[in-house]
Amino acid sequence: MSYPALATRTAVVTGAASGMGAATARLLAANGARVALLARRTDRIEALVAEIAAAGGQALAVTADITDQDSVDAAAAAVHDAYGPVDLVVNNAGVMLPNPLADGRIDEWTRMIDTNLTGALRVIRAFTADLTAAAADGRFSADLVNVSSIGAHVVFPDYAVYGATKAALTQLSTALRAELGPRDVRVSAVEPGLTDTELGGHIDNPALREQLGGMFAAIPALTAEDVADLIAYTVSRPRHVNLRHQVVLPTRQA
Questions:
Q1: What is the mean pLDDT of the chain?
Q2: SS3 string of 27-96?
Q3: Are 152 and 120 in contact (CB under 8 A)?
Q4: Catalytic residue among 3, 83, 162, 233
Q5: Beta strands 186-192 and 195-196: pairing type?
Q6: pLDDT tens, 70-92?
Q7: 159 noted as active-site residue
Q8: CB of 250 within 8 A of CB of 194?
Q9: What is the average pLDDT across 135-156?
Q10: What is the mean pLDDT of residues 86-107?
Q11: Which of the four pLDDT bands, split at 50, 70 and 90, describes residue 42?
Q12: Residue 187 near residue 175, CB atoms below 8 Å
């Protein structure tokens, strides 16, 4: 699908080095948006910027670690220097590190909380003033999209902390709608089910890695492009329409 309403937008996409973030950045740019790509892997986002530019789009590579406040502040300054204020933020960066709670993996717990929840909050803090200003201008839509997970409300054994971070992100989205909706900023939570991305590549538990592989063998998964298309559709609605909470699943997982 094409989304001509995106042609005037200025977007930030976190976790843009791969998967849903890269697919979303690519699709937004293909529809005319200026897109700032935030991620830790500089080589990946620079390659994607080159790809977007070759296709006639506009994109900016900004190396950023959303678990570090100084890094987020510097990234926001770089985006503002290049593009000015933004009107679309896609909080996509996340990690999934499952293990039995009894293993006591504080290292993994900390990383997931710092990325999936606190990192998202840092990005929201950096760009909320932009969103409210864009909405107040009246000529633009203003969107915050938080990419959560079906794990926010479906229990998967050994994914307790991951699920908790995503449940918190979904709840945060609900609360932010109460704060920002009256100011004409749309807040959307998107909860994908089984999706073919790099997310499972960080699992260090062989049994859980094999279990996830079995799910992919049994269920035709969503692609990153499927989720990107849903995000683009969401943010291209008329400015008085807020698609607030969307669960997108492979048909056989539904």
A1: 96
A2: HHHHCCCEEEEEECCHHHHHHHHHHHHHCCCEEEEEECCCCCHHHHHHHHHHHHHHHCCCCEEEECCCCC
A3: no
A4: 162
A5: unpaired
A6: 999 999 999 999 999 999 999 99
A7: no
A8: yes
A9: 94
A10: 97
A11: very high
A12: no
Q: Is the pLDDT of residue 141 over 80?
A: yes
Taking a C-beta distance cutoff of 8 angstroms, is the pair 87, 130 a contact?
A: yes
**Separation in Å, CA 36 to CA 62, 110, 111, 150, 192:** 7, 27, 24, 27, 23
Work out the burial of residue 230: count CB atoms within 10 Å of its CB; fewer than 13 is exposed, 13-18 middle, 19 or more buried.
buried
| Residues 163, 204: Cα–Cα separation, whole Å | 17
- What is the distance between the alpha carbons of residues 121 and 136, in angstroms, rounded to a whole number? 22
Beta-sheet pairing, 58-63 with 143-147: unpaired
**Do the beta carbons of residue 11 and residue 89 sit within 8 Å?**
yes
Per-residue model confidence (pLDDT) at position 139:
79
**Exposed/middle/buried for residue 107 (C-beta within 10 Å: 0-12, 13-18, 19+):** exposed
The pTM of this model reads: 0.96
As to burial, measured by CB atoms within 10 angstroms (0-12 exposed, 13-18 middle, 19+ buried), residue 154 is: middle
Q: Measured between alpha carbons, how far is 175 from 96 in angstroms, rounded to an integer?
A: 24
pLDDT of residue 234: 98
Whether 113 and 80 have beta carbons less than 8 Å apart is answered as no
Residue among 31, 58, 63, 189 at smallest CA distance from 124? 189
